[in-house]
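Encode chain A's predicted structure.
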Amino acid sequence: MARKKIFKNEIRSIPMLFGEEGRRFLEEAAQKAKPEPPEVLARIKADYEMIKANNEIWMKKHQERWAKQEEAKRQKQSTVQ
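Encoded structure for chain A:
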């Protein structure tokens, strides 16, 4: 029975680099890296701040609910004992 090909091209394994080869690879990658333009950094920061604010709102809303659930559990356990 022939194996069905899932991918058009086979996925090659990524070699692990250790020692001198690894250090050289990191140095070359650092030299090739280009800094992001200020506009992109500003957009990233604005997105981060929006997500952070949404998360704080969500956490506040759900912490109140979780506190009520914990209190209900405690009351239920105290009535059982």
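Residues 17 and 25 are 8 Å apart (CA to CA).
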